[in-house]
Write a structure and sequence with these properties.
The protein is an alpha/beta fold. The chain has helices spanning 11-19, 35-39, 55-63, 90-103, 114-122, and strands spanning 25-29, 48-50, 76-79, 110-112, 126-130, 139-142. The longest helix has 14 residues, at 90-103.
Amino acid sequence: MLKNINPLLNPDVLQVLAAMGHGDTLVLADANFPSESVAKKTTHGKVLRMDGANVVDAADAVLSLLPLDTFIDNAAQCMEVVGDPDAQPDVQQEVQAKINQHEGEGFKLSPLERFAFYDKASTSYAVLATSERRFYGCFILTKGVVPPEV
């Protein structure tokens, strides 16, 4: 156990978060996402697991350590609802609330069409699989920088 680190952040996840650089992306995936096959194409090459956790709790844990990229407009992306691109399911609203909590109101989830999401996920640094059962609980977070202390 470590102090002040969310216990959902297991050693494998901590290592990946620390290894990621500015502009690298992390996929937070629901239980229906093809995590294993997509993860094989990523930089990390294998799926990270947070079994038993929902994606909202996973986002909360990850965002407690991972800064979002302030140099781009879409540092937080979600999978667009097929047939209803303006829809925002509860799971996406809940993750948006975690983003606001950790990063402020400036980061809005940007929807990405389903197959475009898969393509972008395949080029990510890593995929973190959760046990989230709600549909459209898939997100891509782009790592930012930690500024120097003034």
